[in-house]
Amino acid sequence: MKKIAVLTSGGDSPAMNAALRAITLSCGYHQLQCVGFYHGYNGLIDDQHVDMQNLNINSALQHGGTILKSARCHSMLSNEGVMQACNTLRKHDIDALIVIGGDGSLKGLQAIKQHWKRQVIGLPGTIDNDLNGTDNTIGFSTAVTTATHAIDKIRDTANAFERVFIVEVMGRHSGHIAFNVGIATGAEAIISFENFSKDQANIKVNEILKAIEKQASTHGSFLIILAENLWPGGAQALKESLNKQGQLNSAMCILGHIQRGGSPTPEDRNLATELGLASVDAILNSKDNIMIGKCSGTVVETTLNDVINTPKQLNTGWVNAHQEQLTYYLK
Ligand SMILES: Nc1ncnc2c1ncn2[C@@H]1O[C@H](COP(=O)(O)OP(=O)(O)O)[C@@H](O)[C@H]1O
Ligand SMILES: O=P(O)(O)OC[C@H]1O[C@](O)(COP(=O)(O)O)[C@@H](O)[C@@H]1O
Fold first, then answer.
1. Which stretch of DSSP H or E encloses residue 240?
2. 171 lines ligand 2 (CB under 6 A)
3. Among 211, 213, 214, 238, which Cα is nearest to 226's?
4. Domains of the chain (ranges plus CATH)?
5. Among the atoms of ligand 2, which is closest to the Cα of residue 13?
6. Which of 277, 279, 294, 329 is most buried by a 10 A CB count?
7. pTM of the prediction?
8. Can you tell me the ipTM of this complex?
9. Angle CA(328)–CA(329)–CA(331) in degrees, nearest 5?
10. Residue whose CA is closest, atom 8 of ligand 1?
11. What is the pLDDT of residue 219?
12. Catalytic center residues
């Protein structure tokens, strides 16, 4: 009987459980053994494993997080760590390894592939949507939905007080969340990696203050979506600059990890299920060294090399639409 191993790694993303469920059920259907490793690559290094058939996988479907737990694992950045992970795979006579995670996790999978010659398959699991080879990553839809609902509430109070609000969203170093959430919430300004560089901070503050002045004569509130890890000094520093130079009482909110958790959207559950099933099919079809994603409605395979080495650009149409048509009245 073929033995398949699976683990979830890096930042957890909603609907990782849906992918685990699909993989476990598909393995059962095809009479394959399915072994889960806990805590990302740590569980592979320390041999913390579970027979996936023994987990109550169905009841996990509607929950965020991951029943296999997730973690970042420093040991994987050394050759010894990678070798230890490979030893565990050999010890259990694993035939194929599926890793659900972001670009770091897929780099880890590539490192394993260099020392372990059996099949490796990646699934795109990150809220950031920063992986080439799939239109959407598993978890992105839920993160955008959660952030949109939270910001809609902030907008209510911003409207009531005719107040400027800065909301910082996640995304690590990409603006997929910032632009999708910013456009969905009708933000007056989006500050993200695609339209801002750190040396433009003073120019940006002046530009925003002018736009706020114009906005005051239409409807009162002014919403700024800020990508994390971008503004020098963070959202607090932006707030202080606006308040000082514009004599404002703007407020700031960092949405943080609420974007990573919660019940996954049906879109995320179904994407995770489809990709989970496809990963087991790929193993049965002797595929190797690939990530499985979905582009334009079709399940696609991309080499790990191409996923890792080709940055996924944000649709420039989205960036331009926001800066031109959707905020023309603020110019
Ligand atoms: N270059 C690398 N070589 C080996 N393992 C890596 C490498 N980069 C990341 N990893 C492993 O993948 C884990 C998750 O990566 P990280 O970048 O934190 O999250 P994500 O996979 O969500 O992008 C890391 O903690 C580490 O164990
Ligand atoms: O929870 P941590 O370890 O502070 O990491 C925060 C980072 O994780 C994320 O939520 C998800 O990123 P990854 O999927 O690449 O791990 C990022 O948006 C954020 O920058």
1. helix 234-246
2. yes
3. 238
4. 3-139+264-309 (3.40.50.450), 142-260 (3.40.50.460)
5. 14
6. 279
7. 0.98
8. 0.99
9. 70
10. 104
11. 67
12. 128
Find out whether the beta carbon of 127 lies less than 6 Å from any atom of ligand 2.
Answer: yes
Instruction: Please give the chain's pLDDT, 331 residues, in tens.
Output: 899 999 999 999 999 999 999 999 999 999 999 999 999 999 999 999 999 999 999 999 999 999 999 999 999 999 999 999 999 999 999 999 999 999 999 999 999 999 999 999 999 999 999 999 999 999 999 999 999 999 999 999 999 999 999 999 999 999 999 999 999 999 999 999 999 999 999 999 999 999 999 988 776 899 999 999 999 999 999 999 999 999 999 999 999 999 999 999 999 999 999 999 999 999 999 999 999 999 999 999 999 999 999 999 999 999 999 999 999 989 8
How would you class 262 by CB atoms within 10 Å of its CB: exposed for 0-12, middle for 13-18, buried for 19 or more?
middle
Q: Cα(62) to centroid of ligand 2, in Å?
A: 21
Ligand nearest to the CA of 103: 1
Indicate the top mutation candidate among 70, 136, 170 to test ligand 2's pocket, ranked by most ligand atoms within 8 A of CB. Answer: 170
- Whether residue 132 contacts residue 311, with contact meaning beta carbons closer than 8 Å, is answered with yes
| Cα 205 to middle of ligand 1, angstroms | 35
Residue to mutate (ligand 1; options 105, 109, 114, 126; most atoms within 8 A of CB): 105
Q: How far apart are CA 189 and CA 204, in angstroms?
A: 10
Q: Which atom of ligand 1 is nearest to the CA of 75?
A: 27
Which one-letter amino acid corresponds to residue 233? G
Task: Please spell the DSSP secondary structure of 83-133, one letter per residue.
Answer: HHHHHHHHHTT-SEEEEEE-HHHHHHHHHHHHH--SEEEEEEB-TT---TT
Closest Cα partner for 69 from 50, 87, 85, 84?
50
Q: Atom 12 (ligand 1): residue with closest C-alpha?
A: 105
